[in-house]
Amino acid sequence: MKVLKFGGSSVGTAEAIEKVVEIIRDACCTDSCAVVLSAMQGTTDALIDAGRSAERGDDGYIETLSNIGERHTATIRKLFGKENHTDVLDFVESTIKELQNLCEGVRLVRELSAKTLDRILSFGEIVASRIVAAKLGDEDLENEWKDSRLLIRTDSNHGFAAVDFAETNRRIKEYFDGSPAKLNIFPGFISSDSRGYTTTLGRGGSDYTAAIIAAAVNATTLEIWTDVSGMMTADPRFVRNVRQISHITYREAMELSHFGAKVIYPPTIQPVMVKGIPVLIKNTFAPEDHGTLIEAESTTENEMIRGITSIDKITVLSLEGSGMVGIPGFSKRLFDALSRAVINVILITQSSSEHSICVAIEEKSADTAKLAVDSEFEYEINVGKIEPLKVESGFSILALVGDNMKEHTGVSGKMFTTLGHNGINIHAIAQGSSERNISAIISSKDARKAVNTLHEEFFSDGNKQINVFIAGTGTVGGKLIDQLRAQHEHLTDELRLNVRVVGVANSRRALLANDGVDLESYSTDITKGDELTIVGFTDAIIEQNLRNSVFVDVTASPDVVETYPKLLAKSISVIACNKIAASSEYGKYSQLKDLAREFGTNFFFETNVGAGLPVIHTLGDLLRSGDKVNRIEAVLSGTLNFVFNNYDGTSKFAEVVRQAQDEGYTEPDPRLDLSGTDVARKILILARESGHPLEMEDIANTGFLPESCLAGSVDDFYRELDGNESHFRELLDDALGKGLTLKYIASFDNGKASVGLQSIGPDHNFANLSGKDNAVLFYTNRYSEQPLVIKGAGAGADVTAAGVFADIIRASRT
Ligand code: ADP
Ligand code: ASP
Ligand code: MG
Any idea which of 11-25, 160-174, 317-331, 552-566 has the lowest mean pLDDT? Predict the structure, then answer.
């Protein structure tokens, strides 16, 4: 015999019930069948609502019950031809009347006992199974309907009754021995106690009913028909790219369901496992899909883990105190107290010092647990041996499950590193000694992110989703977005990175879209975006709590820099094109680097020096591999190089500067370039990155701009440049007269840094630097005779955006 169970969604509509009938027809061609049915989806919840509203004295239950009645009636009308549906309709009508009476009674006494609630709930399964049985009969599939309450005997723990297996098995066998029908139909979920009162087996309990029957009759298989094609590697409502698990062992399935994989009710596995009955989870709406086969042994698919689950609404109880150390019996007393209060313990951890025991339970039992434990330890608490029970809520349990875990080292390492990189704090950890499960208690607000990020780490063919937030939509920001759009395919195909821009902000407004901002239309969309300051934008980023988040600052604003610490402290990578952070006071710069280290994230600012040229990371590689930087010589201003390369006396100095600005080679305020301040910031950053804690004041700057050029607005500046043409002409003629050219050079030597205009000869390393190029020469222990040279375009929106892009990729891969 086969046992088939159909869940709430499988009997949720007339169309679904028709599919169920076809599945049963196929199944009973070859074998006799027992079919277990749930209530129509949502009915149990609605019945609970009705009961609770009656208990409050509210007559809302009348409408709720009549809605339940109408839904069933409409389904029956759809399912049956006109003539032969009266029996079932009458049955539903009388049932609803009975429910109205029951609820009226509850309303009058203002009390809903667990016993009465069970009675109310039983109608959901009774009616649904009656409808299906009638429909099967209508389709010439002769069957026998049997009230499961007459077969499944339990204790009187209403709502969560424990099965008396000896009596239940005896009754089921007796029933089947005497039943001539090849097809037997049963309502799931319901049972009765020794006095005949209705009990229920816990929410989702119809699966259990089916397993109890299957075990009692030694069925060949138990099929659980639901609305998904089997057990998935994670809850499909939480994670997008879940995979179907084709084979799984009983123990793995048990662990997964225990820790939240709702597709199967946890107690279901036990009875069938004992009998070795295979369980097949199938999809009523896609019966051709393979589904999941649960057996004693399963083919290993070479995965380290089988699935990831989480349960929310968890409360953590901690019993702590020096009085516990070395004295046996504390934990026994704790668990006895919890057990007497009928509290289900989900997870336990104990510190090796025995100083504390930490227990995870369902949130709804928190108050009862506190009372029970504090009264058990009243004496010890009074004499100060232990603390009153600490109760903390708002947690979830995250679990990684797989029999194979014991053969693979490093699963927990990978798990906790991944969580750490995403700023997910772990409150407690438990690992079963069977090494089939590693669980961690985390804050519920991190649960979705945690499951997704672990799923990606363990299951996604190497594909990783990067969530990018961009502050600044100016020239560089715009180019960066263009590049990200153009490279999307390459990134997914070649690097297996799905880089998604999920937020874009300018100084007034922001666009935030979890599914990705439209990179074609963002510049118009943002005009209708939310009005948000940078603080609002970054708060929203933190609030969104997405995995692998990267924040990109392509502004020149000090306000944006102020937000870096809080982002880094949430393990969000910060990619700064903005130079303010790395060149502000040393304390700030080092604080940001420390934060990145502490929170396992990245603070990258490659484009601060030499735009897209790989200067800072090369320097980092040299130092990490044990080299030491002795001297740096550099031309670090694309603007100044452009200006002095193009200023040959044919046009005025002011005109050449304006051309540089028009072509996008200058800072928004070109005085930062012309005064040498920008170059000073860059050599300062290189000196710091080489390990020297210099400040801006330590950089000697021999500027060439007359004082008057530095006051006033940018327009005033151009006017002053124009008025001082003779000064610039003099500098030029002086150099030309000696056969030299002008270069603005930054140097760092022996711990000291300086910047200034120099006249250099044709043999100088920088003599042939053309256009807006930059060059950096590193003299190190390894490169002592001939320096390591990095040279190329050192300004321009395209190359700068490319440098930021490279930083994003680097941050994504660490
Ligand atoms: P039924 O009413 O058929 O008993 P349930 O709603 O109890 O169905 O269980 C099926 C649901 O379980 C799926 O729709 C899915 O949302 C959820 N679920 C949670 N975790 C998993 C998982 N790991 N694999 C498959 N489904 C899961
Ligand atoms: N109808 C019950 C519930 O919703 C039992 C079940 O569907 O398995 O919990
Ligand atoms: Mg279910």
Answer: 317-331
What CA–CA distance (Å, rounded) separates 447 from 398? 7
What is the C-alpha separation between 733 and 654, in angstroms, rounded?
A: 16
Cβ neighbours of residue 111 under 8 Å, at least 6 residues apart? 55
- Rounded to the nearest angstrom, the distance between the alpha carbon of 102 and the centre of ligand 2 is 20
Tokens of 352: 């090796």
Locate the ligand 2 atom nearest the alpha carbon of residue 202 and give its number: 9
Measured from the alpha carbon of residue 39, the closest ligand is 2
Bridge partners, residue 760, by sequence: 741
Of 203, 213, 227, 265, the one to substitute when testing ligand 2's pocket (max ligand atoms within 8 A of C-beta) is: 203
Neighbours of 813 (CB within 10 A): 11
d(CA 219, CA 264): 18
Which residues sit with their C-beta closer than 6 Å to ligand 1? Answer: 7-10, 38, 204, 226-228, 231-232, 234-237, 261-263, 307
Mark whether 682 is an active-site residue. yes
What does pTM read for this prediction? Answer: 0.79
Q: Read off the tokens for 229.
A: 């094609």
C-alpha pair distances (Å), 536 with each of 471, 531, 532, 542: 12, 9, 5, 10
Q: How far is the CA of 40 from the centre of ligand 2 (A)?
A: 9
Query: What pLDDT was estimated at residue 433?
Result: 62
State the pLDDT confidence band at 241, using cuts at 50, 70 and 90: confident
Pick the catalytic residue from 682, 743, 772, 791. Answer: 682
Q: Determine the residue of 9, 10, 36, 44 to mutate for testing ligand 2's pocket, defined as the one with the most ligand atoms within 8 A of the Cβ atom.
A: 44
Pair 541, 500: CB distance under 8 Å: no
Neighbouring residues of 352: CB distance < 8 A, sequence distance ≥ 6: none
Three-state DSSP state, 391 = strand
What pLDDT score was predicted for residue 666?
A: 84
Q: 44: Cβ below 6 Å to ligand 2?
A: yes
Residue-wise pLDDT tens digits, 607-622: 999 999 999 999 999 9
Long-range contacts from 293-300, C-beta under 8 angstroms, 24+ separation: 293/246, 293/247, 293/248, 294/231, 294/248, 294/249, 294/250, 294/253, 294/269, 295/247, 295/249, 295/250, 296/249, 296/250, 297/249, 298/247, 298/248, 298/249, 298/252, 298/403, 299/247, 300/403, 300/404
Q: Cβ-count burial of 232 within 10 angstroms (0-12 exposed, 13-18 middle, 19+ buried)?
A: buried
Q: Whole-number mean pLDDT of the chain?
A: 93
In the structure encoding, which two tokens stand for residue 56, read together?
A: 């409050």
d(CA 602, CA 608): 15
Q: Which of 638, 634, 675, 677 is nearest to 660 (CA)?
A: 638
- Ligand of minimum distance to the alpha carbon of 37: 2
Compute the distance from residue 204 Cα to the ligand 1 centre, in Å.
10
Which of 86, 326, 81, 98 is closest to 198 using CA atoms? Answer: 98
CA of residue 309 to ligand 2 center, whole Å: 20
Per-residue pLDDT at 687 exceeds 70:
yes
CA–centroid distance, 227 to ligand 3, in Å, is 10
Which ligand 2 atom is nearest residue 125's CA? 1
